[in-house]
Amino acid sequence: MKEDTEKISCHVCKKIIPKAAALHSEGQEYVAHFCNVECMDYWKKEKEGEKKKE
Ligand SMILES: [Zn+2]
Fold first, then answer.
1. How many angstroms is it from 28 CA to the middle of ligand 1?
2. Separation of 2 CA from ligand 1 center, angstroms?
3. I need a surface site. Which of 9, 10, 14, 43 has the fewest CB within 10 A?
4. Number of domains in the chain
5. Which domain holds residue 22?
6. What is the pTM for the complete model shown?
């Protein structure tokens, strides 16, 4: 039961990182994890782009 060593993959680049070190963005439907701010920004921009298509 060591939460510190739990691993997750970045939502954008799929890099494996410790969950404790991950950034996360709480969306309306789910929580996405990211290895760094750049990946989080990339994901946010993609989401915004999808909305604008409608
Ligand atoms: Zn990443």
1. 21
2. 23
3. 14
4. 1
5. 3-53
6. 0.74
